[in-house]
Amino acid sequence: MRSLAGRDLGTYYVVVRVLDERFVAVANGQRRTVSRPKVKNRRHLEVIGWVDASLALRLERGAKVTDEQIAKALETMPARVYEGV
């Protein structure tokens, strides 16, 4: 997900928890950690069309996800996602 509004405009995140129909908790493994995720309105996030399969599987199963795993997943995101292709 990419932030579309706020001071974190343009920052990439992973959704770590769905809070309700309007809000989700997001983390990037660096400034926003799993233990202190940012609460964002879904309208202020853009789906980027890329998923790290191993991270998604861990989140779906409810397994523990570390900040290092999130940061690594965002670092390995394909360049075409950044370019908006």
Automatic annotation (TrEMBL):
<dbReference type="InterPro" id="IPR041985">
    <property type="entry name" value="Ribosomal_eL14_KOW"/>
</dbReference>
<keyword id="KW-0687">Ribonucleoprotein</keyword>
<dbReference type="GO" id="GO:1990904">
    <property type="term" value="C:ribonucleoprotein complex"/>
</dbReference>
<protein>
    <submittedName>
        <fullName>Ribosomal protein L14E</fullName>
    </submittedName>
</protein>
<keyword id="KW-0689">Ribosomal protein</keyword>
<dbReference type="InterPro" id="IPR008991">
    <property type="entry name" value="Translation_prot_SH3-like_sf"/>
</dbReference>
<dbReference type="GO" id="GO:0005840">
    <property type="term" value="C:ribosome"/>
</dbReference>
